[in-house]
Design a protein that fits this description.
heterodimer; A: Alkaline Phosphatase, subunit A; nine-stranded mixed beta sheet; 36% helix; globular; B: 550 residues; mainly alpha
Amino acid sequence: MAKSNKHQSAKQGHLHDHDHDHCEHHEHPSTHHSGRATIHPLTRREFLHNGLVMASTAAIVPAFLQRSAFAAAAQQPDQPVGAKPGVDEDRVLVIVELGGGNDGLNTVIPYGDDNYYRARPGIAIPAAQALRIDGSSRNGLGLHPNMTDMQSLANDGRMGVVLGAGYPNPNRSHFVSMDIWHTADPSGGRGLGWVGQSLDQKIQAYPNADHSTACIAIGNSVPLATQGKNAKALTFQNERLFQWVGGELHPELGRQYQKLNRTGNHIASTAGGNLDPVSSEASFLMRTSLDAQVASDRIRSAVAAGTLTSFPGGDLANQLRLVSAMIRANMPTRVYYTRLGGFDTHANQPNGHGQRLQQFSQAMGAFYRELDELGASDRVLTVAFSEFGRRVAQNASNGTDHGTAGPMFLFGPMARPGWLGQQPNLTKLDQGDLIHTVDFRSIYASILTDWLGVEQDRVLGQAFQPANVLNL
Amino acid sequence: MPPTTPPQTPPHTPTSPTQPSFASSTDSPQQVSASTRSTSRRMSTQATPTISTSLASIPKSDFGYTQAQHLLGRAGLGGTPQQILALQQMGLDDAVDHLVEYESIPTNDALSNPSVNPDILRPPTDEERRAARRNRNQPISQAERDRLRAIRLQQLANDRTQMGDLERWWLSQFIMTPRPLEEKLVLLWHSHFASNHRTVRDSYLMIKQNVLFRNQAKNFPALARGIVHDPAMLKFLNNDRNNKRQPNENLAREIMELFTLGEGNYRENDIKQGARALTGYSVQDNEFRFYANQHDSGEKTILGQRGQFDGDDFVNILLQQKQTARFIAYKIYRHFVADVSDFTEDMPPYTQSVIAQLAKLVVRHKGDLNPILKTLFKSRHFYDTNIVGNKIKTPIELVVGTTRSLGSPPRDIDVLASAIEQMGQKLFDPPSVAGWTVGRGWINASTLYTRQNLAVYQITGKMPYQDQWNRSELGYDPMDLIATLPNRDNPSPEMVVDHLMAALLAGEQIRRARRAQLLEFMHSRTGPVNADRIVALLLLITALPEYQLC
């Protein structure tokens, strides 16, 4: 079991302020600019520097903060954040959670299988409408007709669909099954999140680096997946809430807030009695507050700068627009977490489900068009999952009830394109439900090992054969 | 608000443990060695600060408003300027008695009894099980299977609803209770003996565990003995699957590592033997049940003691260990005094010294927290300027403290609960058996904004997305906060700033450092200090990074 707060406490033991050098990237010095292919993360040093300049506070940064940000960076040898050699540290993972239990059989249509049409007389997608993927040797599978953007992505070699992903002894409760996917623990979804534990490894490997923006979750709750022992996601619904809202009551309050939160030198020298001022909790908070102002400025100006391409409306597209803006602004963020709900289609499924899939598909299409314009597609892998698929047979309300296995989606030029793995058999069922053909943890294993460069067995509790889903 | 007359000595007498516990008081306390690992110590490059390590009481004359504010923030959950003043006027001894011996304060009847349905997820009774077994060979149709599955999912949904109700109840209790230390202790034990609803998935068992923490809040031996009979914990750590044929070591391990001794103070074999002692400790129909036929009644050797121990004996052996006293002293210290490392060698020497002294008290008083907390809350160390205002508020302390300090309406309890969750703390759902994080672990850029923005809502009633706001939504009179000022009708900006800072910011250094900036704002406005100016000042004070400290 988890040990109590070891790293957190150990972190307290460090000065915890002089760690802003981890984003140095030897191969791509940040002064090198030659067109869009040179998009690369700013160094932490530049990040902080630009942030401070943007905030017009460079001149009044307390001395101890300058030391923390600049002097310490100069003292320490530059090092990449990766726990594994050979893994580029500007790689980004975007997670799209499809909440409610996406009906896999009406997403990836097994139009070649008559059993599909027999089980779903009221809601099956006609074979003629299913969207084919070019060059796919596998016949009989197509995408829902609303997913034209994703069809194009697949045809461009930038989307792979993992068929029949699930886990043993599936749980049909939304909450339990979602916890299982978030923790990669099929025994009941206990413990910490798979992303959080991955980032814990980075923290452990580079305790002096700044990991504060390593993970950003868009939304109003912290996804369990991002919860590490030490790693913690930045979470905000939108950029408007990633700042102090008191200023909305009166502009003068906003001005006063800036003064109080960007100037902490009064405190550092006096708070905490005669304890070391740099290590007092007051100065830690002041540093975090200053970091927060910088990150807020940066994120809000990134969002204000907008995107190069246009995005459709809708919840997921809005979130991915924010993510694009942050990638464009070279946030040193490794993992972004986004969510699209509404997949719990127990009744009158066709319209609602079709709209959800359209949102999903259009948002993904827009996201990768924007990333192409930014020249960033190569470093952004997106994975989409749902907590379970749905029952093979439709119910009496033209809907479907909670089921088991379903498709996962991988996006980006590094994804192996097309249909991946084996579509579950529609006649060999377990209590009316599909039997999974691939354990989702072997997909995680590939992402952890090949993309994030962390030790997958320490995250998954055991070593999995990584699924062959990435071309790297 | 504390009564202005000292409370009577409460009728409550702490229950003595029935078994001898901890090492006898004649034993010398364990020596805590100073660190040699200079690289990971915060103080390593600094001269040792002068900080009192004494648990002797401060002079009674030193108990001023600042000390009362500190006491109410740490031993309580904060209070209005008037409440702080009332506590100060009680004097040190009575003020501490008032907070610690809270049994003499009547509870708030409207809140003290949540309504709970124990049977939402009640497992089948023996009778029902037998009936099911008789029907086992009957074929079951898909429709029937679907029906049963739907019932089960509905039960789980109902259980989550009840857990949400109980979470709201407990949060309300934090805000309204006249016995703030009781809730703080329940929260300490909830994080020390941590189970979560996410895993246990039974709201009744979670609230039952909460009642154990409540009834034995100041009696550690009773808590430790109770936890091996607690259905939520037995389920959470799989002891319901611990039987003599297939021992499950989960509970035995965590009892030693996280509940009593601390990591590294036992051997793997002690865990194995402890797990054998705990075999048969299980749950039946919401209650603890001992299954003698699953219990391994053979001889065990645990920490050098040999006997045919059962789970209760196992806990008693752990309670005899000096290391347990030290570990509990550390947990109490971390909860009430300072955010310290869980590694002795990473602690500064003055922290080690105070914890060693507290551990002696734990031994002397056999785990009864009444005298220990009283000593601590009167001590020179507790009121040292290096301790005051140098601890980060937990989300609960922050949110509850803001409402209690302003005397403002509690607002929408769901909004508060959801914000507290965003800050990383969901009642009944600590992240793991190791409990919640402490100190700096609570803070990052987004939790800091959530902390500051929720205060805006608490002070004004304005939700972040709300564009129009009317001051009638305040729901309280901010002028009440300066009611005790001598010239309350036309107070000077200086008096108002000093008065509100003294109530809301812990520690004189912090107040001194921020005074000029806040005054500058007050002087930038014209006219007498009115409710709007008070609200503006409250917004700025709660938006200071230092407001996160207590």
